[in-house]
Design brief:
292 residues, alpha+beta, Uridine Diphospho-n-acetylenolpyruvylglucosamine Reductase, domain 2, Uridine Diphospho-n-acetylenolpyruvylglucosamine Reductase, domain 3, five-stranded antiparallel β-sheet, 35% helix, globular, binds flavin-adenine dinucleotide
Length: 292
């Protein structure tokens, strides 16, 4: 399959890239690792006339802890996330998503910004990021704005990103002591397959061991990754235990909106939301207990 014709640009700064986006508007598309965009171009789903590569922009490659925040540049590759001690130490649920994404070849090219930008409902990184309460930084020639990742996804392939904006950074508050999170996905095969269901859960305990904050995020069971609000309500104010996690799993199942497709029926996916919610909560709790 041949690619459609396009002009290629490789700016070295975010400002330069923003200038190009404002000049070319809807004719342009950003490319990072290309593992999603190239497939869509080969399938003729997209045919941008101007391709702006951001892979030469070093400002997008950072992964740091700054004060009470973890800052991840949009150009950080999935392989970098897998190897990062910061991710393993502070954000293990994001690390689990990264380690489950594609194959080593894909992980070497694929970026966190591209995984978010592609807005696939089954993508591996958004549930973990949303469970940690991530926000995204969007830059254009006009300036910079931040948005909770919860509000970024609009539907399959659609986001709140304006045509002249670049996602430059993901910001996450350092999770407090007494908090834990986990991510679990299932697919028909172990690798090289789209997820059937994926869930990430996070909760934080107060000094009395009561859950004071909880986020449960489901993928593949709606047009975008979204929070199981009923499950979160069940968790908050309670002491963690297996019966509570079961109830939260049932509530998450009820919140999910799966559809029948060639991979599986909606009934199976709905029931797996319950199972994965329980599993992620249990893993998160184990992580909290291991801190003690
Ligand atoms: C064989 C194969 C297996 C795969 N397996 C998985 C998997 O298991 N799990 C999974 O989640 N995904 C999977 N993918 C999809 C893809 O690899 C990931 O979504 C990847 O993270 C995309 O990152 P990228 O840098 O390659 O994005 P690109 O293809 O470069 O870009 C994807 C989209 O995001 C936009 N974009 C990229 N960077 C930015 C930015 N900084 N700001 C704004 N917009 C931006 C682009 O314009 C484009 O629309 C797979 C793909 C292939 C080909």
């Amino acid at each position: 399959m041949l690619l459609p014709k396009f002009d290629f640009h490789a700016p070295e700064t975010v400002n330069e890239a923003c200038q190009m986006l404002s000049e070319y508007g809807l004719k342009a598309k950003l490319i990072a690792g290309g593992t999603d965009l190239m497939v869509n171009m080969k399938k003729k789903i997209l045919a941008p006339e101007q391709i702006i590569s951001i892979s030469q922009i070093r400002e997008l490659d950072h992964l740091d802890v700054s004060g009470d925040r973890i800052l991840i540049g949009a150009g950080v590759t999935v392989a970098d996330l897998c190897e990062s001690k910061t991710i393993a130490g502070y954000l293990p649920a994001l690390g689990q998503g990264a380690n489950n994404l594609g194959t080593p070849l894909i992980r070497n090219l694929a970026t966190i910004g591209g995984n978010i930008g592609s807005a696939r409902p089954a993508a591996d990184l958004p549930p973990g990021l949303m469970a940690y309460g991530a926000e995204v930084v969007l830059q254009s020639k006009a300036g910079i704005r931040t948005l909770p990742l919860d509000n970024f996804f609009l539907g399959p392939g659609f986001t709140a990103l304006q045509p002249d904006e670049i996602l430059t950074e993901i910001r996450i508050l350092v999770p407090p002591a007494g908090s834990g999170a986990a991510y679990v996905n299932i697919g028909i095969r172990k690798a090289q397959d789209c997820n059937l269901v994926n869930v990430a859960s996070y909760f934080a305990l107060d000094s009395n061991g009561i859950i004071q904050n909880a986020r449960v995020v489901m993928g593949c069971v709606g047009p975008k990754p979204f929070r199981a609000v009923s499950a979160e309500k069940i968790l908050i104010g309670q002491k963690p235990d297996i019966q509570l996690f079961e109830k939260a799993g049932e509530a998450a199942s009820a919140d999910s909106q799966p559809i029948d497709d060639f991979r599986s029926c909606a009934t199976y996916k709905r029931s797996m939301v319950g199972v994965l919610t329980q599993r992620t909560l249990q893993q998160a709790w184990t992580r909290i207990k291991n801190q003690e």
